[in-house]
Amino acid sequence: MKIATYNVNGINARLPVLLRWLKESAPDVACLQELKAPQEKFPESAIREAGYDVIWHGQKSWNGIAILSKVGKPQEIRRTLPGDEEDVHSRYMEAAINGVLIGCLYLPNGNPAPGPKFDYKLSWFKRLTDHAKELLAQKTPVILTGDYNVMPTDLDVYKPERWVDDALFRPEVKSAFHALVAQGWTDAIRKLYPDQKIYTFWDYFRNAYERDAGLRIDHFLLSPEVDKRLIAAGVDRHVRGWEKSSDHAPVWVELKGA
Fold first, then answer.
1. Looking at the DSSP assignment, which residues form a beta bridge with residue 232?
2. Boundaries of each Endonuclease/exonuclease/phosphatase domain copy (predicted)?
């Protein structure tokens, strides 16, 4: 079973790239973030023609997530992160697919920091951590994947000294990520590639992709029940180089079994 995550940075603007990647990579499940489209503007017919069932939660101009599956219709569990009934941002969706509970997330950027946006990021992280603890307690296969907007260590960022004041790299954010993982989650990429420089995002400016001046901010966290099934993981880095591509590249894991 191959599961991928991809921040598409505007699904309608990047639809040709998305469809090309889906055909080439053929993930069984794909979690998308940053749709930047209201609910009614999601390209449902094109996704279904590509062979995928889909559920999505859109939002005008910003945010938005979707879960695609060609191994059974996603059984939606929730489309909001618990803990704040007033938070209307479309940043979290959870579905059961083929015996695995998959949480697709788009964690707030948080810049500028300090400030209200950074406070929102930390509170969202706290809500995610609380919910993740409850998911682990179920002792069932769970994956939390998406754009976390955090580089956990210096290895995950090009020239870390330039990012010390950024909301994606501040100590509070890295600590929040490490506390989440410490509950019992496995960072899939780092399990298989503990010391390798791997990026998932390259800015559009200053030829970042060509210089490989990137960040690793898209992550797969696996519960113990999924961790034992992990056989491969990677980044489809070349997709970032396609014309009119997102500034993110798709990330994927492969699990033993159906």
1. 254
2. 4-248
